[in-house]
Specification:
395 residues, 13 strands
Length: 395
């Protein structure tokens, strides 16, 4: 079939297998071009491994550190007349490339919150890999069925305490408008924390520890975002921010666990605002990203997912580097985004952006291009007018 992008709201409902493979290869090329990461991990588990920061972590571990990797993800294969999800195609491309280099790359597809997927993952590690020296926790899911209670929790993206009104942009239509979001109630706050907080990360780490599958000195990292004040009501101080506070709580507990396991450590990496499937759904944030991209590209400091993670591994985790924790014990790989001169430029542009000057004052074109790349579209060297085979079996 001929596969073209079909965008509905903040998601593209189609994905291109060759385009996704080309995007993965771009990321591999970047990591390899930066050279080997000395002292990097050799056995890595990535939970949430098929897109975004999780995929970038798996690629960096494999192609920057020569690591065996196991990736856990929840993706849909192709159906009659319908391509698979981009994470399905991403994983196949990554797996093929890793195995071509003689690296182990094992895949577990299913609900990472469930006991069954944890059990299957432990079995693969025990049989094929051995104790891991790095666990990356990078889940981004809108819902979670709790493995103990059976209750289905759904996350919401809402402010807490008061309604919030600010600018936003329809990235597809290019219309700048004002959005008002009512505050979350207590049940919504609790549900969002249940989905996006740190309980599941703790469950994974405890399961690995009890199974004897954490190598001495093992590390674990989870990803978060803080961002500038203009986004705080919907992010840092909103439901998602409260969930991230719980993620930090879990990180402290896991850090204590790992310190007892041969002096390991766990921490939160606060990353840069980027176009991901998750960030596209958050009101206000796409407009901020569009402004930020233009400013950081002009300054020569713009990074995507793979640049961020490669820099994290090479300058904060391995290569003899030191993490440089902030006052809350977090690693700040968003440091270039939060430079005072960058944020001052964002604040100057923000009130002036309208539908009419959107293309001039922001990098909305770059936002759209990065968004379509997530689904395998707009990659050089791919003929999108020719037939392609959407049915690709998982490796």
């Amino acid at each position: 079939m001929i596969i073209r992008p079909k965008v509905r709201g903040f998601v593209c409902v189609t994905a291109h297998p060759e385009g996704c493979a080309a995007h993965v290869q771009e990321w591999i090329n970047h990591v390899q071009g930066r050279g080997p990461i000395a002292g990097g991990p050799k056995r890595v588990l990535v939970i949430g491994a098929s897109t975004g920061y999780g995929l970038a972590s798996r690629i960096t571990a494999a192609f920057g550190c020569g690591a065996s990797t196991v990736g856990v993800f929840f993706e849909r294969p192709s159906e009659e007349g319908r391509p698979a999800t981009p994470g399905w195609y991403n994983t196949i491309a990554m797996t093929r490339a890793a195995r071509a280099r003689g690296l182990f790359a094992g895949n577990i597809n299913g609900d990472a919150f469930s006991d069954d997927i944890k059990r299957r993952t432990l079995e693969m590690l025990r049989a094929e890999v051995g104790p891991v020296d790095l666990v990356v926790y990078s889940l981004a899911s809108p819902r979670r069925t709790h493995p103990r209670t059976g209750v289905a929790h759904r996350s919401v993206l809402k402010p807490v305490g008061n309604s919030y009104t600010n600018k936003t942009v329809d990235t597809d239509k290019g219309v700048v408008s004002t959005v008002t979001i009512d505050p979350a109630n207590e049940a919504e706050i609790a549900d969002t924390t249940a989905v996006m907080g740190g309980e599941d990360w703790e469950m994974w780490m405890n399961a690995l520890s009890e199974a004897g599958l954490l190598a001495p000195g093992a590390q674990s990292v989870a990803y978060s975002y803080i961002g500038p004040e203009v986004t705080w009501a919907i992010y840092k101080n909103g439901t998602i921010g409260l969930a991230k506070n719980d993620l930090e709580r879990a990180g402290r507990n896991i850090d204590s666990l790992l310190k007892l396991n041969g002096g390991g450590r766990a921490f939160i990496s606060v990353n840069k605002a980027l176009v991901t499937q998750a960030s596209s759904a958050i009101p206000v944030v796409p407009l901020y990203i569009s402004i930020l991209y233009k400013i950081m590209k002009a300054a020569g400091t713009h990074e995507g997912c793979i640049e961020q993670v490669q820099r994290l591994f090479a300058t904060r985790m391995y290569n003899g580097s030191k993490p440089g924790f902030d006052e809350a014990g977090r690693v700040r790989i968003d440091d270039w985004e939060m430079r005072p001169e960058i944020q001052a430029a964002v604040r100057e542009v923000w009130p002036r952006v309208t539908t009419e000057n959107l293309a001039e004052l922001t990098d909305i074109a770059g936002y759209r291009a990065d968004f379509l790349k997530l689904f395998g579209f707009g990659l050089p060297g791919i003929n999108y007018d020719t037939e392609t085979e959407p049915h690709v079996p998982m490796l």
